């Protein structure tokens, strides 16, 4: 792709964006709000009180929070039924997934409107039926991270080898299909057969992994030491830029490959 095409694409994308000097100005005439204030409850509660007063009653109020349930900062609002969490995944300009998490009082129509908007924007929304600590993505990631830290702490494997186990192993499968479809395809007759054959093994692993451990300072220091051997601290910004380029290229390839394959399945 030429530099001119890239430049034109960026310019057309940012053309509608405007910077507002006040909250009143930012909320004027809008249909949807995506709030990304700091992850501090007192800030969000005050901000939503102001937004709820200023925004028209039919405006959807969505939060980008990574872990705070909407019920914790919208319970005091007169129009709280239009509030929910719409949690993007970092980096959000490259990862399409968003988690839609309603509060107990969120109107179903609000969730529908938010989901439809995300689809139109090219995102991939998933819907939770209720609030849960960590939502879905962080719970899945947390389970994997918990085991990864345990393996390092117990001296079973290095940080680099664990990263390789995902990047060159599980991650290649999970790049284009989820864990349920993965095991469904890993047994000749599907997921029920897989569970019969390997369910007892996973149950045994789950009992071993049930000892939740804090990531203590000594463990974190060791993981940090190993990570800095791979990427020096001063090179982290460049490494993030490399990550974003890889994600953009992989997302493009994924779209083209899956689009071509869908016509043959």
TrEMBL record:
Superkingdom of source: Bacteria
3-hydroxyacyl-CoA dehydrogenase C-terminal domain sequence ranges: 134-206
Keywords in alphabetical order: Oxidoreductase
SUPFAM superfamilies, sorted: 6-phosphogluconate dehydrogenase C-terminal domain-like (SSF48179), NAD(P)-binding Rossmann-fold domains (SSF51735)
Protein name: 3-hydroxyacyl-CoA dehydrogenase
Annotated ranges, domain 3-hydroxyacyl-CoA dehydrogenase NAD binding: 8-130
Source organism of this protein record: Paraburkholderia silvatlantica
InterPro entries (alphabetical): 3-OHacyl-CoA_DH_CS (IPR006180), 3-OHacyl-CoA_DH_NAD-bd (IPR006176), 3HC_DH_C (IPR006108), 6-PGluconate_DH-like_C_sf (IPR008927), 6PGD_dom2 (IPR013328), NAD(P)-bd_dom_sf (IPR036291)
Family per record: Belongs to the 3-hydroxyacyl-CoA dehydrogenase family.
Entry annotated with the keyword Mitochondrion: no
């Amino acid at each position: 792709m030429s530099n001119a095409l890239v430049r034109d694409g960026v310019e057309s994308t940012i053309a509608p964006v405007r910077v507002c000097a006040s909250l009143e100005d930012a909320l004027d005439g809008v249909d949807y709000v995506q709030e990304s204030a700091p992850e501090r409850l007192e800030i969000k509660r005050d901000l939503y009180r102001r937004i709820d007063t200023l925004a028209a009653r039919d405006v959807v109020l969505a939060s980008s929070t990574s872990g705070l349930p909407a019920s914790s900062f919208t319970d005091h609002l007169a129009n709280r039924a239009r509030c929910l969490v719409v949690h993007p995944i970092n980096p959000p300009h490259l990862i399409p997934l968003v988690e839609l998490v309603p509060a107990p009082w969120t109107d179903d129509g609000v969730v529908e409107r938010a989901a439809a908007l995300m689809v139109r924007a090219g995102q991939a929304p998933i819907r939770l039926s209720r609030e849960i600590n960590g939502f879905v993505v962080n719970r899945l990631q947390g389970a994997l991270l918990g085991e990864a830290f345990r393996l390092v702490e117990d001296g079973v494997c290095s940080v680099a080898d664990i990263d390789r186990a995902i990047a060159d192993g599980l991650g290649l499968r999970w790049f284009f299909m989820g864990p349920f479809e993965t095991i469904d395809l890993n047994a000749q007759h599907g997921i029920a057969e897989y569970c019969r054959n390997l369910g007892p093994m996973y149950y045994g692993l789950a009992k071993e992994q049930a000892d939740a451990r804090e990531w203590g300072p000594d463990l974190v220091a060791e993981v940090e030491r190993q990570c800095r051997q791979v990427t020096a601290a001063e090179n982290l910004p460049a490494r993030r830029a490399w990550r974003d380029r890889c994600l953009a290229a992989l997302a493009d390839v994924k779209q083209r490959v899956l689009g071509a394959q869908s016509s043959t399945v």
